[in-house]
Amino acid sequence: MPPITPESTNSTPRLVIYHQTHHTPSGQYISLLPLLTEASDYIPITHLILAAIHLNTPAGNIHLNNHPPTHPQNQPLWEELRILQDVGVKVLAMLGGAAQGSFHRLDGTDAEFDEFYIPLRECIKESGLDGLDLDVEEDMSLPGIVRLVDRLKADFGEAFLITLAPVATALQGGQHLSGFDYEALEVMRGDQIAWYNVQFYNNWGNLTGFEGYGIIVSRGWKAEKVVAGVLTNPSNGTQGWVGLDELAKTVSVLRVLFPGFGGVMGWEYYNSMPGGEERPWQWAEGVSKALREP
Q: Cα–Cα–Cα angle for 109, 149, 169, nearest 5°?
């Protein structure tokens, strides 16, 4: 039976997977198509986030990881992303991450902002992306992130998805990486932000139980906007990997305790356990079952 297109990729619970490692060390392309062909009767993910876009100097020097997005080695990737979009999966790109500088360059005067934003806007248009994930892991001002959200919405419209990727403590009232106050941002522009891909890993939280997620909801965050992020393989970070069986149990509890539960996010695709590099789609298939079970 062919895969069935998700009824609504904006409904909850979502299953979001990041995709940063596009080639093996030997240069072999890592295909995304098994996410479509290996599931027996459904597409396991709702959203894929392509990582990572970096704004370098001088302005207009934009890289997708180590090369410009239009580099020939990225051609198979863009072709497969179009196929994912054709069957209903929303494809976003991640801006920023651990490699700092992009958001600093978007946090200056209006003229400085335009210098770096306009090439980014054109890159998004050319790529046909459904949205942008803002992974702010450097100091940025609240007016700066608000300006960026406003410009993206003004340029791409209401259907364009804007997400952010805070560490868990950022929504728990603790220290974090972004500089600005996420609660203030949600008050000011929450209607423009689709959801938050919350990092419960790398010593910023964990999903071995429901307590960390519960703290976030207890502070007034809507469960439907909080997507719980985990490592898909222990080698993908310093801490926060949860085995698939244990994760499935936690997800089942979260769905019961927090109606409208926003879903699960995994970092990242290429080596997801239990299948590893040979069968990375198995993680998405297993988590999807946990999210779908009555």
A: 100
> What secondary structure letter does DSSP report for 167?
B
- Choose among 232, 251, 173: nearest CA to 18: 232
Report the C-alpha gap between 9 and 156 in whole angstroms.
Answer: 18
CA-based end-to-end distance of the chain: 22
**pTM (two decimals):** 0.95
Structure tokens at 82: 């179009």
CB 126 within 8 A of CB 97: no
Q: Using H for helix, E for strand and C for coil, what is the string for 251-288?
A: HHHHHHHCCCCCEEEEECCCCCCCCCCCCCHHHHHHHH
Helix (H, G, I), strand (E, B) or coil at 94: strand
Token pair 């932000």: residue:
193
β 47-56/61-64 pair status = antiparallel
How confident is the model over 111-144, as pLDDT tens digits? 999 999 999 999 999 999 999 999 999 999 999 9
